[in-house]
Amino acid sequence: MVSSAQMGRFKWLFLLCLFSTLGFVSFSYLRRSPAELGSATYWASSIYNNLPRYEVRRFKGVLDTVDRHNTTTAPGEGRRTTSETSENDSKAKISTPSKELVKETVQRTTKQPHTVHITESGKSQSSNENQTVMDINNNKTDPNETLIVDTGKNRTETTPKPAESGTPPPPTVPPAQRDPKWFLSDDTYTKSKCPSAIRENPEKVPNGRKFIPDIPVLMWNEHINPEEYARLRQFHMCYGWKGIDYQDIKNCLRHLNTSAHRYMFPGWTPDHAGCIRCAVVGNGGILRGSGKGKEIDGHDFVWRVNAAMIEGFEEDVGTRTSFYFHDVNTMRNSQATGRVYGYRHPPQDEETVYANILSAPDMRDYFYYDAAMSWKPVKTGKDKSDTPPSQYGKKPANTKFRMLHPDFMRYLKYHWLNSSRGYGRFEDIYRPTTGAAMLLTALHTCDVTHAYGFITADHRQYSDHYYETDYRHAVVFYVNHDFQMEIELWDKLQKSGLMTLYRGNKTQPTQRYRYTRRYEN
Predict the structure, then answer these.
(1) Bias category Polar residues: which stretches (predicted)?
(2) What is the domain partition of the chain in residue ranges?
């Protein structure tokens, strides 16, 4: 006779076998797709439809989701990468449910999967080899649409039908325009009849420099288009749009949409009578004690740059500011370094116009100008803020802004300051100083140019800046500029009669200059 203890053991053994059998049967159903279940019971299909969807990587035939209904992109932009698409679609994933692909738990959905045709390496599969693609966010998939699958890299991109593509291929840049010395043409400043203007005296241009009368100086809203974007994206920094998004440029340039943005001088026309006289004021220590303030203010327009400190130095540097030259980087650095001397922000006079040379190697200047003219905070980048930029005053009018054209900056580099530093190890950081860009812009737009506060051969006798209280802060030479070349150019332009240059009032050296391998940010 079987004892009660033995009956208990048989009961537990029976239950263990029963649960093992049920578990095996359930798993056999769960590892199949609904299409394979056929006449399976309702409870098995219900369990499958409510299973979590899985993110699977590094397996053959597994596809990342792409937006097949947004095959167009902004001109000049490439097709979205897999990572960008996944992020924008809330990390939606395409997966093939099978036994070996159950890895990581991600989003859940009760939406039924649907079937599309897949091709591997461009070859179509037979109709009985369909793969299941999960549809997230109500993306409707055309069953006739083709996907090209690189199963080795698990990267997928759509191949839209020709009739469905609304964006033409990026424009091809003509061979001649690939040359960095190819420029647009703008005859705006050729209309001046002043006898002292540089265009009336091209023979006075120093040897080794090339003067182009119709070089474009300013940039405005009509300069952003797919063809120009394709051409200028070849060049970096202030010389082009390399690494800068098409839409970010467009968002900025849309503000520069009036006739005022096509000509430097407010209240004047290109075919003006008489001569436009400009005082171009640098920040060199040579101006300290000069007594040139009244003379400077007597010009039609007064140009200043970077830490343009006026209060307390009116007798030497004047009081007016018609143009303030900068890029966002030099402007903010000037605020930081000049604070100890009392400098707070650029001049904000009623007549002040802000001219940007766009020298930052990123989108910084475009973000900042767009925010300033829209009177909104900078949303992204190094200057991200909660309030609108304050350097230009409160709600400045868009007519108070100018931007130099990248062609003009490239023209200055190759035809006026073609330094050896622009090639080789310093090629990616070299550019003319902000002051040099300002002075050469004045030379190409003003009829009469008088320069004050610029570096001269006897710079050792002066401090770096006129607002410094002693001479211990000597002139610093940065490796991303060629100061020696600028010294020589100013001297040649003065001797040729194309401009006048204030040379100071000292005769004995008091301080040697200091050279550094740092570069000016």
Answers:
(1) 121-141
(2) 47-164, 176-515
